[in-house]
Amino acid sequence: MPRLISALLTSLVAAALAVGAAFAVVALLNATPEQPNVPLISYETGTPRK
What is the reported pTM? Predict the structure, then answer.
């Protein structure tokens, strides 16, 4: 009986760790990195050239 309880507790702890790791991975993937607000292409404004 103690081996059954030990096996149950081990599987519950493993499942809890797996769920925690899954939530951590999802949280890391949803994190947006800091990006500079610098445009790669800028267009001149004003009168168009002819």
Answer: 0.57
